[in-house]
């Protein structure tokens, strides 16, 4: 990272964007070895929110018989209302552009209030059947609250909760723990729903970009869309109608490849390449199975190590080219 920064600074000097005196000052400043604790403090704040909400959940679970349902719900409601009170009091109000709080601590207060709201609604539905047998509403209502809070308070963490809740509402599980056991692999309807939801998220990013509505949220939407569409289409490549989904995967892979350059998102770029690589390999195996290539088994086994090594080298080269273009764009 230090070498990259030095090279970037040198490029700025060679392009006459900074003077020789400014170059020496930058080098002198970097030589001091000063670093920022901002990221570390934000991480601790995030962990404190998770530990606090988790602690409330454990407290409810362990003392549900002694404290009482009404007392627990009352405590949850009071804490949630207090959190929202301070959030609305310090908020700048809804704005189409970036309008985050001046104090980053308040962003985590919004996250706390949203999580407590989800806990409150889930608890009251479980205990008192607030929505009757319409269990989907118990997911949809916290999702709507999360979307409102995400856009009103301009909070990306809350937006991830909202999108996850939206996926859960249609029956999808997008957490890493349940990825391998997801119903994608047993229910075609869910895989179709995942592709449709991913497509809708993409359409929303296009629309929000046109009206300039929270365009910095697009990365989150595109990340969810990439994973949902890619996993669902790759799953369907193993079915008998794989050719249709091969075309869908190819089209979306090209789209995400282009958009990752537009928003300069390295994670989006890497996952796009990996999903495309997996899809290509499945299609190749399908082709070999179709032409009955058992006679060329020894040749395939001989070529495979070189193919894997070549793929790794190509991936590294693509990432280096991406970072190089990203650096050039930042210099310009």
TrEMBL record:
The answer to whether UniProt assigns keyword Membrane to this entry is yes
List membrane-spanning regions.
43-61, 67-88, 108-126, 132-153, 158-177, 189-207, 219-234, 240-257, 264-284, 296-316
Question: Which InterPro entries does the UniProt entry name for this protein?
Answer: DUF2157 (IPR018677)
Highest taxon above the source species = Bacteria
- Looking at the record, the residues that make up the DUF2157 domain are 11-158
Coiled-coil ranges from the UniProt annotation: none
Pfam hit, one: DUF2157
State what protein this is by name.
Answer: DUF2157 domain-containing protein
Q: Look up and give the organism this protein is from.
A: Flavobacterium shii
């Amino acid at each position: 990272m230090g070498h990259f920064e030095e090279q970037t600074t040198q490029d700025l000097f060679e392009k006459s964007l900074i003077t020789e005196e400014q170059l020496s000052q930058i080098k002198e400043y970097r030589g001091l070895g000063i670093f920022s604790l901002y990221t570390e403090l934000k991480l601790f704040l995030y962990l404190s929110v998770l530990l606090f909400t988790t602690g409330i959940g454990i407290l409810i679970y362990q003392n549900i018989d002694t404290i009482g349902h009404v007392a627990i719900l009352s405590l949850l409601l009071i804490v949630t209302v207090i959190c929202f009170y301070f959030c609305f009091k310090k908020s700048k109000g809804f704005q189409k552009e970036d309008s985050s709080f001046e104090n980053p601590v308040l962003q985590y207060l919004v996250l706390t209030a949203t999580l407590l709201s989800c806990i409150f609604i889930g608890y009251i539905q479980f205990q008192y059947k607030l929505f009757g047998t319409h269990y989907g509403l118990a997911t949809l209502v916290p999702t709507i609250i999360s979307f409102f809070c995400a856009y009103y308070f301009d909070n990306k963490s809350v937006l991830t909760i909202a999108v996850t809740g939206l996926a859960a509402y249609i029956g999808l599980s997008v957490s890493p723990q349940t990825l391998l056991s997801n119903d994608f692999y047993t229910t075609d309807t869910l895989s179709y729903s995942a592709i449709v939801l991913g497509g809708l998220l993409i359409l929303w990013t296009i629309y929000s970009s046109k009206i300039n509505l929270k365009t910095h949220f697009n990365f989150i939407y595109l990340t969810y869309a990439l994973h949902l569409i890619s996993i669902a289409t790759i799953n369907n490549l193993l079915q008998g109608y794989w050719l249709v989904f091969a075309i869908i995967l190819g089209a979306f892979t090209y789209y995400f490849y282009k958009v990752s350059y537009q928003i300069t998102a390295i994670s989006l770029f890497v996952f796009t390449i990996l999903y495309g690589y997996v899809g290509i390999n499945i299609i190749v195996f399908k082709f070999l199975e179709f032409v009955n290539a058992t006679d060329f088994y020894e040749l395939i086994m001989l070529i495979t190590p070189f193919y894997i090594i070549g793929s790794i080298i190509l991936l590294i080269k693509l990432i280096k080219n991406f970072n190089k273009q990203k650096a050039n764009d930042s210099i310009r």
